[in-house]
Design brief:
37% of the residues lie in helices and 33% in strands. It is an alpha+beta fold. It has two domains: 78 residues, 2-Layer Sandwich (Double Stranded RNA Binding Domain), CATH 3.30.160; 77 residues, Ribosomal Protein S5, domain 2 (2-Layer Sandwich). The protein has a four-stranded antiparallel sheet. Strands 5-6-8-7 form a four-stranded mixed sheet. Helix 3 runs parallel beside helix 4.
Length: 181
């Protein structure tokens, strides 16, 4: 006979697997590192992964191992643990936003429907994983993949929906005079 805890664990496993299968993993960068030893060179790999559910949640992870597949697996697990929710609306972002991390700087602007994701490299990976379909992006400063990805995440964390901004002001909706002005 199974204990109640054992049954509960088995019932939750399909839900957990279903939740994990909805996630999208994008490999941003794989780096090969060589260590010189007495017998020659010993190689190791590091991987930068972005994971998202295309519905507003995204995270990035970094993993290191002696094999590429193991580095990707470790980075994927790290990215799943680091997932956070972002405020996106109707396939774009609610307002212009600027994010910095280290030397990486990213500017994101909302775009009209049908524009697509106008971004490159790590910025594109993050925006597609979070579920943004129409956005304009400019990456400035450092081209370090990790800093650009983290700057994009910093920018997305600053996003606030219209309802949140009105609630901060103690309002439920804009006055009619402000709408027609």
């Amino acid at each position: 006979m199974a204990t109640p805890q054992g049954n509960r664990g088995r019932r939750n496993q399909p839900d957990r697997q279903k939740e994990q299968s909805d996630l999208v993993e994008k490999v941003v960068f794989i780096n090969r590192c060589a260590k010189v030893v007495k017998g020659g060179r010993r190689f190791s790999f590091s991987a930068l992964i972005v994971t998202g559910d295309k519905a507003g949640r995204v995270g990035c992870g970094f993993g290191k191992a002696n094999e590429v597949s193991e580095a990707i697996r470790k980075a994927g697990e790290s990215a799943k643990k680091a997932m956070v929710h972002m405020a996106i609306c109707k396939g774009t972002i609610p307002h212009d936003v600027y994010g910095e991390f280290g030397g990486g700087r990213v500017l994101l602007k909302p775009a009209s429907p049908g524009t697509g994701v106008i971004a490159g490299g790590g910025v594109r990976a993050v925006l597609e994983a979070v579920g943004v379909r129409d956005v304009l992006a400019k990456s400035m400063g450092s081209s370090n993949h990790a800093n650009v990805v983290k700057a994009t995440l910093t920018a997305l964390e600053q996003l606030r929906s219209r309802e949140d901004r009105l609630a901060d002001r103690g309002m439920t909706r804009l006055p009619a005079a402000a709408i027609h002005a």
